[in-house]
Amino acid sequence: MKSLLILVDQLNDWGPYYPTNQVVAISDYLGTNHTENHAETRGYVINLCHDYSYLSSGYYGSLLAEARGGQVFPSVRAIRELNSFESGQPVSTKFSLLLEATWRKRNTQIDNLGIRSVFGLTNDVDLASIARRLFDIYAFPIADINFKRIQENLWVIDQFSVRSLDELDDAGETEFADALDTFSHKIWRHRRNTKRFKYDVAILINPDEALPPSNKGALKAFEKAGKALGLNVDFITPRDESRIGEYDALFIRETTKVDHHTYRIAQAAENQGLLVIDSPTDIMRCSNKVYLHERLKLNGVDTPETRLILTQHPINYDEIIAALGLPIIVKIPDGSFSIGVEKARTREELEECITRLGARSALLLLQEFMPTDFDWRIGIMDNQVLFACRYFMAKSHWQIYNHSARSHKSGNADAMSVDKVPKNVIKTALKAAKCMGAGFYGVDLKADGDRAVIIEVNDNPSIDMGVEDLHSGQMLYQQIMGIMLRQLDELNGR
User: Fold this and answer.
1) Which of 79, 153, 348, 494 holds its CA 20 to 30 A away from the CA of 1?
2) Domains of the chain with bracketed CATH
3) pLDDT at position 186, please?
4) Pick from 484, 461, 416: which is nearest to 223 by CA?
């Protein structure tokens, strides 16, 4: 479990809260015995010193914590930004509009609004999103922020004031304790009976996602399986990005993209030493079909006959049609869930499709059309086959997903025992997964006689209760979380 260290000016600053040896006086942390006691700071550090000015003890607390390998709140960068802060810094248009709406709602004659942010949380529910964002930027544990209205829909930060523990009244102490409870899960104002877990695992979800990789039943099953193995499982959203250092592992259950917060969060987690599934490398490799095609081709893995075209260069349609036949599948490199994948039945449709999709991407993939009643999905993690499933085409459609249909948007699925799957399908799927790495993959294939052809390798395959787990049930979730536990042990030298 990642360690937590709280730095204070004097130990009696922590008097109102539950005693713990995780609170350290700054003099001890910076003193002559630091090499013995704090030479390496694993996990994260909360710096609650009164003074963050340049070369102060508070400044050196964050500086040395970073040098010793800790994730520090506030960081040295944040302290520097605070020390150079000038009144009148504008906020984004989005937040200006939010401040304007809140100001009008309250019908105040004073052209300013203020909040107290404690670990990115505030009692002002109207301005909660602003508090979270400013904590992502500055990461000061306790701050009073005042916003000033310059003109209609234009707001600036007028004051940004850091507060210390000794400035809090009883209500402020309670607010601090509750916020720290939410932020860290480690320190409590009052004693609680808590179960100790070996590791903390964050599962990243997006409650607003239309087609998430896991439904609610599957997420609960992951949580149950994790806790049975000694893993404390928390569900987080993109709003919790700043908290990622609290955890030992990140398991992404949101559709991933490179130009997306999922990639950014995965990268931040990996940089902080977490086990990450899916890793930023896996996201990068699997999200782009051009990379995937080249990687599979290099390793001799069978794929549909494919052409890569530069949409801004002359295109030899005769050669393409002669090589691939008609119809032709046209793909945008970073599409998912069949989005950005179209079928051109004629030359005219092909030209129109390339023109339209080419406005979105400089490169397109053109592939031969291989009609089948279903696609194979083989789930692989750490080069082990975990599940096998047949995805049938959507009703009256050539794809698994039909995004234009009002109903029957996806076809049925049929999970089965791995030993019932044709051997060439399993062999080809394992070969494809090995080309990408040792992560968690959903390998999509089409089978035609003795030929097994890779369609895609997905970096965060769908695991839905009642679909992929239909054959193995709870065992599937136990396998996945069990592999994560083993990898965490290896990562931590256990």
Assistant:
1) 79
2) 4-82 (no CATH), 85-163 (no CATH), 199-283 (3.40.50.20), 305-368 (3.30.1490.20), 372-491 (3.30.470.20)
3) 40
4) 484
